[in-house]
Amino acid sequence: MDNRNKVLINYNIILVLLLLFLSSCVAIYFAQQTHQYTTNFVVRQILWYIVGVPIIIGVMQPDEEQWRNITWIFYGVCIFLLILLIVAPASIAPVRNGAKCWFVLPAIGSIQPSEFMKVGLILTLSKLIYDHNAKHLHKTLKTDILLIGKLSIATFIPIALIMKQPDLGTALVMMFLYFVMLLVSGISWKLLVPVITATAGIGTLVIYLVLADPLLLQKYLHVSTYQFDRINSWLRPQEYAKTLAYNYLQTVRAIGSGMMSGHFHSGSKVYIPEKQSDFIFSAIGENFGFIGSSFVICLFMSLVFNIILVGLKTKDAYSSYICAGIIGVIVFHVFENVGMDIGILPITGIPLPFISYGGSSLLSNMFAIGLVLNISSRNRSFFFD
């Protein structure tokens, strides 16, 4: 019984998290040498990591059943905060760069509710899939359509609220999470293939209309011209070199200048606005070159691999769905952030998990890691299993 009550710690994930913490501090140190701000972001990032430790410990306490019981409460609180953000006065929810995404609280700083909504959505979609599959043991076309409807409603409510801010990057993360959860939910491929094909077709059509006839989209979808310009600046950066494509060209220049091993001995030389947050990977590439960039990417690959192992070992389906959702969010963040820094994807303002400076992003990621460590701590194998 003593062995059963022991908390099993996944030291592989703890080690990767520690290396990501050290990488974050070093990268932010070099990024802030551009002197855009006078704030010491390294010290603040360390403080956010310290705050994240008790969050991990707290998240590890409830078991799977307790998390299932409080999932809807957590989801409801996150939805309430998103609604409150829309109606809140500018004194506590200012508009920054045309977006109203943060609460600004005294002595705490900026809090972004949409970051915590990602975790809430992971828990909610996992619970919906678990409860649905437990109730409908014999799957039919009708039950699969019903499950798609449940997941769609739970996903598109927060997406609609986030697009009111507007925050396209976070909305894309949630959309990707939605499709990841569809893939692992057990829904028949006879339904999934048409859904995925239709979505890909609509996405292709939208991109074509952005390039060929943007006025049509503006007329029927009421999309701002700024979103169109973001895509055009990615495809034709030289035409927007002094405006929307400035960051894009600077990040490519910074990463290219790092070559194989970087020039950390002489510090950052290419100025990029918000280099410590959204464009942190450019600081890694510039100062540590291909070697340093590859090391950071390998850390993320190791983290994802260890979460996959946890998800495969657990005997609880709800826990495996949570692991799949967390993997989807981390993979999308890394792919999009690195992709926009090296120029293969448009800039969307998505941070690099555990590396970019930002309290809300880091704490939500620490919350997610706490869930994984919770699941891992309860994965026990017994002789007569």
From TrEMBL:
The keyword Transmembrane helix applies. The chain crosses the membrane at residues 7-30, 42-60, 72-92, 104-125, 145-162, 168-184, 191-211, 288-310, 317-335, 355-375. It is found in: Membrane. This is FtsW/RodA/SpoVE family cell cycle protein. Pfam families: FTSW_RODA_SPOVE. It is a multi-pass membrane protein. Its main location: membrane. The keyword Transmembrane applies. Signal peptide: none annotated. It comes from Heyndrickxia acidicola. Keywords: Cell shape, Membrane, Transmembrane, Transmembrane helix.
